[in-house]
Amino acid sequence: MGKSQGRSGLSRLIGMAAMAAAVAAVTKELRRPASERTWHGEVAGFVPYDFRAPTIDRVKERLWSPDDPRVFQPQVFGVGWTVNLGRLISLAQERLAESASTSKTPPPPPPTV
Asked: Is the CB of residue 58 less than 8 Å from the CB of residue 84?
C-alpha cells in the first residue's frame, strides 16, 4: 500500500466520521419537539455542531477572538471545530515579545580568573 492510498483511506475515514456526526446532530434536533430545537449543541458528548444561519458576530467570535483562551472553536456552520486565528496571532505576538525581551538582556560578565 502506497502513501497516497493510506492518506486517501484516512481522508475517507475522517469524512465518514464527520458525516456520521452531522447525521447524529440532525437526528438529535429532529427528535426534539419543533419548539425546542436550537440547531446547535454537541453530539457524542464533545463534538460541536451549529446549523443556524451564520452571523457576522458569530464569525468574529469563532474566527477572531484573541482574548478567548481557546484555539479551537466550534464551526461557524456545520460539525466540528475551526481555528481561532485571533488567539493564534495573540499567542505568537506574546512569544515574540517574550523572546525579544530576553534577547535584550545583556549577557553575564565573563568569569574572572
From this structure: no
